[in-house]
Amino acid sequence: MTMTLSKPAIDVGIISTNGEKMVSFYGGVLGMQQEEDVTIPNYGTIHRFNCGDSILRIMVPEVAPEDVAGGDFMSRNGIRYMTLNIDNLEDVVNACKDFGCNIAVDIRDLRPGVRCAQIQDPDGNYVEFISAA
Predict the structure, then answer these.
(1) CA gap 27, 84 in Å, rounded
(2) Which CATH number is 11-64 given?
(3) Where are the domains of the chain?
(4) In the CATH scheme, what is the homologous superfamily, with its name and number, of domain 80-133?
(5) Cβ(125)–Cβ(14) under 8 Å?
(6) d(CA 126, CA 102)
(7) Taking the chain, what is the end-to-end CA distance rounded to the nearest angstrom?
(8) Same CATH fold assignment for domains 11-64 and 80-133
(9) Is the pTM of this model over 0.85?
(10) Which of 7, 58, 60, 114 could form a disulfide with 110 if both were Cys (CB 3.0 to 4.6 A apart)?
(11) How far apart are CA 125 and CA 117, in angstroms?
(12) Per-10-residue mean pLDDT for the chain, 133 residues long?
């Protein structure tokens, strides 16, 4: 059996206790268009951002979860980063620096014709930016 996608994208959810700063980063610094928030009583609020055909969800629960984000890139198993293919790598990395993000890997050549950088969002999640020359 093979699944049949009803949408040609993958949506990602991040659990955060740092909602205001995360919204400022993804909406303000990266410029993702924010959709209407969804509040689920006794659960929390989901801040939704458009990213191409995908939606990034920042879930801010009413009860704070265990803080396990961050750490060195290869220090934990599981989903550790997301990759965004962009055309304005230098501008985005500079905006992230101005915002105070940790730059885990500054702009570098990944392979011929492809440059990349990795930053950490306000919660310490890794975001990789890829730019084809």
Answers:
(1) 15
(2) 3.10.180.10
(3) 11-64, 80-133
(4) 2,3-Dihydroxybiphenyl 1,2-Dioxygenase, domain 1 (3.10.180.10)
(5) yes
(6) 9
(7) 38
(8) yes
(9) yes
(10) 114
(11) 14
(12) 92 94 98 97 97 96 83 76 96 98 96 96 95 88
